[in-house]
Amino acid sequence: MNAHCAICSTVIQFSFTTIFVAAFPLAPLLALLNNILEIRLDAIKMVRLERRLIAMKTNDIGVWTKILEAIGVLAVIANGLVIGISSDFIPRLVYRYRYGPCASGSTSTHCMQGYINDTLAIAFMSNNDRDEFILPKQINLFNITKCSYRDYRNQEDYSLTSQFWLVLAVRFAFVVLFEHVVVLCKFIAAWFVPDNPIGVKNKRLKYKLDRLKEELREMKTGKSTEV
């Protein structure tokens, strides 16, 4: 039961660390420090405060291996969505190579100059009713306030611009490409790094061979004694 709880807590920590690493990059370092401290505390507890544990043989960690593999795939998808959907990485990339000064061949200005203004849409609000949007052709009929907000909207009728759809398409394309590349790298690394190292397998086979030889020697010795 204690071993099950230990593996469960480790899997939960691994899940939070890998799934939300893009949102909190410091999590792996904190997890490492926590594990180092926990190992030392467990060692003191097992050596000085508790009775000796009874060791049990097992080939692997059982179903936890498949759970960790599923969490790894889920972490790739989650981090791809965080980077592609919620961050400014894609809008900045699209502006740099499609709408910015460098897209038109200008080398005298920075490629990201004007990015903030490009991400802001303009709305005309009535001073009498703050919830009412006024179309630009009606601004002479009302006492209005000009407001800026973050969105890709047409100033004439507040419809979504083509830049919005381009950014959205690039976001989803990035998520799909990111998850496929990272998952492929993950499976390649898993293929090159076996679950059981060759050295450990050889030692286990040698140990079994030695045991068989010892049992055969004992059987021969018993038969010769009977004769």
Structure, briefly:
This protein is mainly alpha-helical. 61% of the residues lie in helices and 7% in strands.
Principal-axes shape call = elongated
* Fraction of residues in helix: 55-70%
Give the number of DSSP strands: 3
Task: Please summarize the sheet with the most strands.
Answer: 3 strands, antiparallel
| SSE ordering | HHHHHEEEHH
Indicate the radius of gyration in whole angstroms: 32 Å
Kindly report the average pLDDT value.
82
Poorly predicted spans: none
Strand percentage, roughly? Answer: 5-15%
Q: Give the termini distance in whole angstroms.
A: 51 Å
Secondary-structure-based class equals: mainly alpha
- Kindly report the spatial arrangement of strands forming the biggest sheet: 2-1-3
Helix segment tally: 7
What order do the helices and strands come in, and which of them pair?
Elements lengths: L1 H18 L7 H23 L14 H23 L2 H11 L15 H4 L1 E7 L6 E2 L9 E7 L11 H31 L5 H29 L1
Helix pairs in contact: 1-3, 3-6
